[in-house]
Design a protein that fits this description.
7 helices; 240 residues; ATP-binding; globular; alpha/beta; four-stranded antiparallel beta sheet; binds adenosine-5'-triphosphate
Length: 240
């Protein structure tokens, strides 16, 4: 398989914070375009750190990352916002804008993309309904429960149909029925072409997703239960 089929590739990637020990070691991985992947691992294993590398909140301390076919270490800083706009992120701590309503938080990526307000209104309403918050669209984040904030964060991450969706424990604050509904949303987005990576401890979620790839982090290293990772990475590159 050629590099052109991968939306992201890690080649011997390591990460340390400051002068501490490496929290991620020798990561070789490949996220296939259009794939659905779960990332598991004990608390502190490095899941959030790996996701941060993918959504460009951290740079690796060694190794190489290719994203959307581009080598990140060669990309100028000015190119990074362009990459980020292609990625939807559900942060573990939600990161909603406090002074904006739930509606306006979800609308943000579409407004940044300068989509017409009429289209924004339809998309945002549809998503708020899907995540069970149609009647809370005017509410501000501080007045929402943790689970409600998480659902707004998910709606915001998916509303622009990103090429890559990265979600950190996206069902950590919701009940089993809502988790199923949110999983269905991710699957639908995946069917429409979004590559999905979900970090989770929720084994029932993983069991419910047919055909998903599973990666596990253990002590900062990737264990590969489904045998789909790349060891070692291919050196060939497809033309174009
Ligand atoms: N900004 C930081 N500065 C220093 N160390 C950090 C920082 N962020 C994470 N770490 C350390 O890196 C290691 C991996 O943390 P990370 O948050 O990636 O794990 P995780 O698998 O996502 O954990 P959890 O499931 O509890 O969210 C931990 O030892 C953590 O203490």
């Amino acid at each position: 398989m050629s590099g052109a089929d991968a939306i992201a590739e890690f080649d011997s990637v390591g990460l340390r914070y400051g002068t501490g020990a490496e929290v991620l070691k020798d990561l070789d991985l490949r996220l296939l375009r259009g794939g659905f992947t779960y990332l598991t691992g004990a608390s502190g294993a490095g899941k959030t750190s790996l996701l941060k590398l993918l959504y460009l909140a951290q740079r690796p301390t060694r190794g190489r990352i290719r994203l959307f076919g581009e080598e990140l270490s060669h990309a100028p800083r000015a190119a990074l916002p362009g990459f980020r706009r292609r990625i939807g992120v559900v942060f573990q701590d939600f990161r909603l804008v406090r002074h904006l309503s739930a509606f306006d938080n979800v609308a943000l990526p579409l407004r940044i993309a300068r989509r017409p307000e009429s289209e924004i209104a339809v998309s945002v309403r549809e998503l708020l309904e899907w995540v069970g918050l149609a009647d809370r669209s005017a509410a501000h984040p501080p007045t929402l429960s943790g689970g409600e904030q998480q659902r707004v964060a998910i709606a915001r991450a998916v509303v622009g149909h990103p090429e890559l969706l990265v979600a950190d424990e996206p069902t950590g604050n919701v009940d089993a029925d809502m988790a199923k509904r949110l999983l269905h949303l991710f699957e639908r987005l995946n069917e429409l072409g979004t590559t999905v990576l979900v970090a989770t401890h929720d084994l029932s979620l993983i069991a419910a997703t047919k055909g998903a790839q599973l990666m596990r982090l253990d002590g900062g290293q990737l264990v590969d239960p489904t045998g789909l990772l790349r060891h070692p990475p291919p050196r060939t590159r497809a033309a174009g």
